From TrEMBL:
Record bears the keyword Membrane: yes
Predominant place of localization: membrane
Location in or out of the cell: Membrane
Organism this protein belongs to: Nasonia vitripennis
Protein name (Swiss-Prot/TrEMBL): Ig-like domain-containing protein
Organism phylogeny: Eukaryota, Metazoa, Ecdysozoa, Arthropoda, Hexapoda
């Protein structure tokens, strides 16, 4: 009797194990979400969501940008496009596994989520997201303004460096004879088109070491890079150099001191006449 009752428990146990195995084998899963880490403004973005239904049937694929509904593809092959700022969908070339965005703008930057739903009980859902950033690199090198022809010990080197328009904003660095120096101030300007222009001001009192070679090399470096959210770094580095003359002597006086000395000599000569 005990043996027969024990044998009676085997079929239900086997059925449960078989059911669990079937559910595992037939589990819905997203194989790959391919989203460009960054794109230039005006480009076309191709986002791909590859999934495996196994034994399940597809109900719909839905796309979101920053948790806002932008596109869906249903089992009946119907497409729905939702209009939001920064997203222009090419519905003709979009389907259940591909989403095409046209003419991306700075407002297209954000998190894109692909969500896949099944059409059979128990209903299942799988989703994943990835970040895309839209950039606009500068077209020109930075410009340096305010330089004079010649400098001497004690003179003030007062210059401005201005970056070209870009997004994200450029970071500016100063180098005097290949030695990095800190700026006096930095100002960020934002245009009506969302692009940025950075201006950095340098004010430095020159010492004999700056002038030892008889000239001063001044360099401004502009760097535009994607944010830390992007999986693949983009960096645009540009620089501008200028050279100005400097008094080579370690004891060379400044221009203002030379002028004062000259005036004093003229005054003394007139006094002794």
């Amino acid at each position: 009797m005990r043996g027969s009752r024990g044998m009676g428990l085997v079929p239900p146990l086997l059925m449960l194990m078989t059911l669990l195995i079937r559910q595992e084998v037939g589990a819905l899963k997203i194989l790959e979400l391919s989203v460009p880490p960054y794109l230039r403004r005006g480009a076309t973005a191709r986002l791909e969501c590859r999934y495996d239904m196994e034994s399940d049937k597809l109900h719909s694929v839905t796309w979101y940008k920053d948790n806002v509904h932008i596109f869906s593809f249903s089992q009946s092959s119907k497409k729905q496009v939702y209009s939001i700022d920064g997203v222009k969908i090419d519905a003709r070339n979009s389907n259940d596994q591909v989403l095409v965005l046209q003419n991306v703008s700075l407002n297209s930057t954000g998190y894109y989520t692909c969500e896949v739903n099944t059409n059979s009980k128990p209903f299942k859902l799988a989703k994943t997201e990835s970040y895309m950033e839209v950039i606009e690199p500068p077209q020109k090198d930075p410009t340096i303004t305010g330089e004079e022809t010649i400098y001497a010990t004690g003179d003030i080197l007062a210059l401005n460096c201005t970056s070209d328009l870009s997004y994200p904003a450029a970071q500016l660095q100063w180098f005097i004879n290949d030695v990095k120096v800190d700026p006096d101030s930095e100002v960020l300007h934002v245009t009506s088109h969302g692009l940025h222009r950075t201006r950095s001001s340098l004010r430095l009192e020159l010492n004999p070491l700056h002038l030892a070679a008889g000239k001063i090399e001044i360099k401004c470096v502009s760097t535009v890079r994607t944010s830390a959210l992007v999986t693949k770094l983009y960096r645009d580095v540009r620089s501008t150099k200028i050279y100005v003359q400097g008094q080579a002597s370690l004891s060379a006086p400044s221009t203002s001191l030379l002028l004062a000395t000259l005036l004093l000599l003229v005054s003394l000569q007139q006094h002794w006449k």
